[in-house]
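One such shown below:
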Amino acid sequence: MFFSLAINPIVFSIGSLPVHWYGLILGFGALAGLFLAIQEGKRFNISQEFFMDMLLLGVPSAIIGARIYFVAFKWEDYKDNFIDVFKIWNGGIAIYGALIGAIICAIIYFRYKGYPFWRVVDICAPGLLAGQMIGRWGNFINQEAYGGVVEESFLRDKLHLPDFIVNQMYIENAFHHPTFLYESLWSLLGILLLMVLRRQRFVRAGEIFLSYFIWYSIGRFFIEALRTDSLGFNGSSGVASFVNGLWSPMKWMGFEQGYFDPAYGNIRISQLLALLIIVAAVVLIIVRRVTGQSKAHYSDPIVSTKPVAADSVVPENAVNTPQKAPQAATPDKVKSEDAEPKE
């Protein structure tokens, strides 16, 4: 027997205020990303306070960007219920919108702190994937961002998934692709890849961050077509055929695209955007190398252009200032002391 919602989305309540799994999972994902950034930042002598402040500013910026992006493409669903725009605990945020919001915040924050943008976002890239890897489990709890209908045997016998995942994928009287899990595992592989890549001497400034976009977008392109809730628009039939043609290798492996409501269009926005991001990232890597904009390597020191604050300089007469060791007597001094008459 299956239930419409196998896992209660509310963890507990504080009075009349419910605490949702969705928010807790997103928060845990943000902390995991922060931990990875702090650990790598130690290699470059960047304080953990810098990354903690970045998180405090970046998370609200990402949530706002993610929600604006999602609502903009589904305005028809919100224009008559404007209060629902703010109910993010019910889901409905877009990763690409979150990245836009976070990047805008990062540009401003890094400039204020005097750190080069490309160097710091390289450090943060694995943390972004960690946040996405964990955050997708919030979609799992909410039973959203799932794929098309599949047989129960596909989940149990081919994917060998545990009962709690299989049961949660029983939605509207049918089993569905656990696309949240596909993207979560893809992000995990991406973290490992970036961690190996950033230890390679040939990697230049900005290339870890751009590699993150390439990796994530490749996975998102193929996984997105499995979903049944894609944002879309009406584009040319040629572009739609091109996108579907690139996705065709998934059909050879036995996958079918999820239902895409014709009312939303004939092109999934996230698929097209993923392709554009891949091309843009590759071109940007090449251009930055050819023009010399990426002279610094990933392993080079990172220095802030902001001067050290006056109150952080320790005065010479401070209590904890080490005393100078007595100097050894020079030969001339020894001679002059020997020359003095002795009593």
